[in-house]
Amino acid sequence: xxxxxxxxxxxxxxxxxxxxxxxxxxxxxxxxxxxxxxxxxxxxxxxxxxxxxxxxxxxxxxxxxxxxxxxxxxxxxxxxxxxxxxxxxxxxxxxxxxxxxx
Length: 102
Ligand SMILES: N=c1c2ncn([C@@H]3O[C@H](COP(=O)(O)OP(=O)(O)OP(=O)(O)O)[C@@H](O)[C@H]3O)c2ncn1[C@@H]1O[C@H](COP(=O)(O)O)[C@@H](O)[C@H]1O
What we know:
The chain has about 100 residues and is mostly helical. The chain has a single domain (about 1-100), classed as Helix Hairpins (Orthogonal Bundle), CATH 1.10.287.1080. About 80% of the residues lie in helices and about 0% in strands. Helix 3 (about 30-50) runs antiparallel to helix 4 (about 55-75). Phosphoribosyl ATP (PRT) binds near residues 5, 8, 12, 20 and 65.
Protein backbone atom coordinates (compact mmCIF):
# COMPACT_ATOMS: atom_id res chain seq x y z
CA UNK A 1 0.00 0.00 0.00
CA UNK A 2 2.67 2.50 1.03
CA UNK A 3 4.85 1.52 -1.94
CA UNK A 4 1.93 2.05 -4.34
CA UNK A 5 1.14 5.42 -2.78
CA UNK A 6 4.82 6.40 -2.96
CA UNK A 7 4.88 5.51 -6.67
CA UNK A 8 1.77 7.68 -7.24
CA UNK A 9 3.40 10.54 -5.33
CA UNK A 10 6.61 10.25 -7.40
CA UNK A 11 4.52 10.29 -10.59
CA UNK A 12 3.16 13.71 -9.58
CA UNK A 13 6.59 15.37 -9.79
CA UNK A 14 6.22 18.02 -12.47
CA UNK A 15 2.44 17.49 -12.73
CA UNK A 16 -0.07 20.35 -12.78
CA UNK A 17 -0.52 21.90 -9.30
CA UNK A 18 -4.04 22.88 -10.37
CA UNK A 19 -5.14 19.26 -10.67
CA UNK A 20 -2.81 17.42 -8.27
CA UNK A 21 -2.55 18.17 -4.56
CA UNK A 22 0.81 16.36 -4.47
CA UNK A 23 2.18 18.47 -7.34
CA UNK A 24 0.99 21.54 -5.46
CA UNK A 25 2.91 20.46 -2.37
CA UNK A 26 6.08 19.81 -4.43
CA UNK A 27 5.76 23.25 -6.03
CA UNK A 28 5.56 24.89 -2.60
CA UNK A 29 8.89 23.40 -1.54
CA UNK A 30 10.45 21.24 1.18
CA UNK A 31 9.81 23.65 4.08
CA UNK A 32 6.08 23.76 3.30
CA UNK A 33 5.90 19.97 2.96
CA UNK A 34 7.66 19.62 6.33
CA UNK A 35 5.31 22.16 7.88
CA UNK A 36 2.26 20.23 6.61
CA UNK A 37 3.75 17.01 8.01
CA UNK A 38 4.19 18.71 11.38
CA UNK A 39 0.56 19.91 11.34
CA UNK A 40 -0.69 16.42 10.54
CA UNK A 41 1.49 15.01 13.32
CA UNK A 42 -0.06 17.42 15.83
CA UNK A 43 -3.57 16.52 14.62
CA UNK A 44 -2.71 12.83 14.98
CA UNK A 45 -1.44 13.40 18.52
CA UNK A 46 -4.64 15.29 19.42
CA UNK A 47 -6.84 12.46 18.13
CA UNK A 48 -4.65 9.93 19.92
CA UNK A 49 -5.24 11.69 23.22
CA UNK A 50 -8.96 12.21 22.54
CA UNK A 51 -9.43 8.49 21.94
CA UNK A 52 -11.62 8.52 18.80
CA UNK A 53 -10.21 5.53 16.89
CA UNK A 54 -11.78 6.47 13.55
CA UNK A 55 -10.42 10.02 13.65
CA UNK A 56 -7.02 8.73 14.78
CA UNK A 57 -6.97 6.38 11.78
CA UNK A 58 -7.93 9.24 9.42
CA UNK A 59 -5.29 11.60 10.79
CA UNK A 60 -2.74 8.78 10.61
CA UNK A 61 -3.52 8.36 6.90
CA UNK A 62 -2.95 12.12 6.34
CA UNK A 63 0.28 11.86 8.33
CA UNK A 64 1.60 8.90 6.31
CA UNK A 65 0.70 10.58 3.01
CA UNK A 66 2.58 13.77 3.96
CA UNK A 67 5.54 11.73 5.27
CA UNK A 68 5.76 9.96 1.90
CA UNK A 69 5.61 13.32 0.08
CA UNK A 70 8.54 14.52 2.21
CA UNK A 71 10.50 11.33 1.45
CA UNK A 72 9.80 11.75 -2.26
CA UNK A 73 10.89 15.38 -2.21
CA UNK A 74 14.07 14.54 -0.27
CA UNK A 75 14.89 11.46 -2.38
CA UNK A 76 14.39 8.94 0.42
CA UNK A 77 13.09 5.62 -0.92
CA UNK A 78 10.72 3.70 1.39
CA UNK A 79 13.07 0.70 0.98
CA UNK A 80 15.75 2.66 2.88
CA UNK A 81 13.38 3.15 5.81
CA UNK A 82 12.23 -0.46 5.68
CA UNK A 83 15.92 -1.47 5.76
CA UNK A 84 16.53 0.59 8.91
CA UNK A 85 13.47 -0.96 10.58
CA UNK A 86 14.62 -4.41 9.45
CA UNK A 87 18.04 -3.79 11.04
CA UNK A 88 16.35 -2.99 14.36
CA UNK A 89 14.37 -6.24 14.41
CA UNK A 90 15.00 -8.18 17.60
CA UNK A 91 16.82 -5.25 19.25
CA UNK A 92 14.88 -3.98 22.24
CA UNK A 93 14.44 -0.21 22.27
CA UNK A 94 15.54 -0.22 25.91
CA UNK A 95 18.72 -2.15 25.10
CA UNK A 96 19.46 0.12 22.12
CA UNK A 97 19.12 3.23 24.30
CA UNK A 98 21.48 1.78 26.94
CA UNK A 99 24.12 1.07 24.26
CA UNK A 100 23.69 4.59 22.83
CA UNK A 101 24.50 6.14 26.19
CA UNK A 102 27.66 4.04 26.26
N1 LIG B 1 -3.50 10.21 0.40
C1 LIG B 1 -3.66 11.35 -0.09
C2 LIG B 1 -4.02 12.46 0.74
N2 LIG B 1 -4.22 12.56 2.07
C3 LIG B 1 -4.53 13.84 2.30
N3 LIG B 1 -4.51 14.56 1.15
C4 LIG B 1 -4.84 15.96 0.93
O1 LIG B 1 -4.12 16.77 1.84
C5 LIG B 1 -4.83 17.98 1.98
C6 LIG B 1 -4.74 18.38 3.43
O2 LIG B 1 -5.60 19.45 3.60
P1 LIG B 1 -5.12 20.81 4.22
O3 LIG B 1 -6.28 21.75 4.18
O4 LIG B 1 -4.47 20.55 5.53
O5 LIG B 1 -3.96 21.25 3.20
P2 LIG B 1 -3.93 22.38 2.12
O6 LIG B 1 -5.07 22.27 1.18
O7 LIG B 1 -2.57 22.28 1.50
O8 LIG B 1 -4.09 23.68 3.01
P3 LIG B 1 -3.10 24.90 3.32
O9 LIG B 1 -2.20 24.45 4.43
O10 LIG B 1 -2.37 25.21 2.07
O11 LIG B 1 -4.04 25.96 3.73
C7 LIG B 1 -6.27 17.75 1.52
O12 LIG B 1 -6.46 18.45 0.30
C8 LIG B 1 -6.29 16.26 1.28
O13 LIG B 1 -7.12 15.88 0.19
C9 LIG B 1 -4.17 13.72 0.16
N4 LIG B 1 -4.01 13.95 -1.18
C10 LIG B 1 -3.66 12.88 -1.95
N5 LIG B 1 -3.50 11.60 -1.45
C11 LIG B 1 -3.13 10.48 -2.33
O14 LIG B 1 -2.31 10.96 -3.38
C12 LIG B 1 -2.85 10.57 -4.63
C13 LIG B 1 -2.52 11.63 -5.66
O15 LIG B 1 -3.22 12.82 -5.35
P4 LIG B 1 -3.09 14.08 -6.32
O16 LIG B 1 -1.70 14.50 -6.29
O17 LIG B 1 -4.03 15.13 -5.74
O18 LIG B 1 -3.54 13.62 -7.67
C14 LIG B 1 -4.36 10.42 -4.37
O19 LIG B 1 -4.94 9.58 -5.32
C15 LIG B 1 -4.35 9.81 -3.00
O20 LIG B 1 -4.11 8.42 -3.09
